[in-house]
């Protein structure tokens, strides 16, 4: 259930649709905001949810500051030799990929592709993004954002970025679990 809900959450904050028995239930960003205000959600997870689903710019700033802190702590612990400038770039990169969502190039963020055969128009799920509409940045763009040379990026940063993205995935799992607990009744 929780993964299903995650795919149904609309990062643009407009609505979160669920099509189940009896039709479609749309979650608005207000429903999500209300769910977030109840119970205990770890602060960084709260910032992530507010930034991603409620278009809360203040929360986005707080999340970026938290990620920057996390990057600096990890760089000390794991001996990543980076400057403050690199760390800021990596924080921006994480925000771009995980909070603001990069548009899938193949379907331009729609999640499906139009096909025309003869006079019939049809659409099919975009395979590139698996229907999510979300894309990723190229390694070249990532390296440029982080202000790290591309060769260095290839050598060290695939793994390190994965590590940081896993951390954000964990925050996201907290959010989904929390919203399930707070809003689950809407489906029952
Ligand atoms: Zn796509």
List keywords for this structure.
188 residues, alpha+beta, binds zinc ion, HSP_DnaJ_Cys-rich_dom_sf, Antitermination_sf, Antitermination protein
Mean pLDDT: 83
Secondary-structure class: alpha+beta
Helix content: 55-70%
Q: How many DSSP helices?
A: 7
Overall geometry comes to flat
* Spatial separation of the terminal alpha carbons: 13 Å
Number of strands: 6
**Strand order, biggest sheet?**
1-2
Q: Major β-sheet, in short?
A: 2 strands, antiparallel
Count of domains: 1
Order of helices and strands: HEEHHHHEEEEHH
Classify the beta-strand content into a percent band. 5-15%
Which value, in Å, is the CA radius of gyration? 19 Å
Bound molecules: zinc ion
Low-confidence stretches: 1-8, 12-16, 18-24
Protein name: Antitermination protein
InterPro entries: Antitermination_sf (IPR038500), HSP_DnaJ_Cys-rich_dom_sf (IPR036410)
Organism: Marinibactrum halimedae
Concise account of the structure shown:
The chain has one domain.
Q: Explain this structure to me?
A:
- This protein is an alpha+beta fold.
- The protein has one domain (2-187).
- 56% of the residues lie in helices and 15% in strands.
- The chain contains seven helices and six strands.
- The strands form three sheets. A two-stranded antiparallel ribbon has the order 1-2.
- Helix 2 (29-37) packs antiparallel against helix 3 (43-53) and helix 5 crosses helix 6 (139-146).
- The relative contact order is 0.16.
- The structure holds zinc ion.
- Zinc ion binds at residues 104, 106-107, 111, 126, 128-129, 133.
């Amino acid at each position: 259930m929780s993964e299903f809900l995650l795919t149904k959450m609309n990062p643009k904050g407009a609505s979160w649709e669920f099509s189940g028995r009896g039709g479609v239930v749309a979650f608005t960003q207000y429903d999500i905001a209300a769910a977030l205000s109840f119970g205990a959600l770890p602060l960084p997870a709260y910032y992530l949810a507010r930034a991603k689903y409620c278009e809360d710019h203040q929360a986005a700033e707080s999340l970026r500051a938290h990620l920057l802190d996390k990057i600096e702590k990890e760089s000390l612990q794991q001996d990543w030799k980076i400057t403050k400038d690199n760390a800021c770039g990596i924080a921006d990169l994480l925000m771009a990929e995980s909070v603001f969502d990069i548009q899938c190039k193949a379907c331009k963020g729609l999640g499906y592709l139009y096909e025309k055969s003869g006079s019939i128009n049809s659409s099919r799920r975009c395979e590139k993004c698996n229907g999510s509409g979300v894309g990723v940045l190229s390694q070249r763009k990532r390296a440029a954002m982080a202000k790290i040379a591309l060769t260095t990026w290839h050598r060290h940063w695939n793994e390190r970025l994965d590590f940081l993205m896993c951390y954000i995935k964990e925050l996201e799992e907290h959010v989904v679990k929390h919203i399930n607990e707070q809003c689950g009744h809407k489906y029952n």
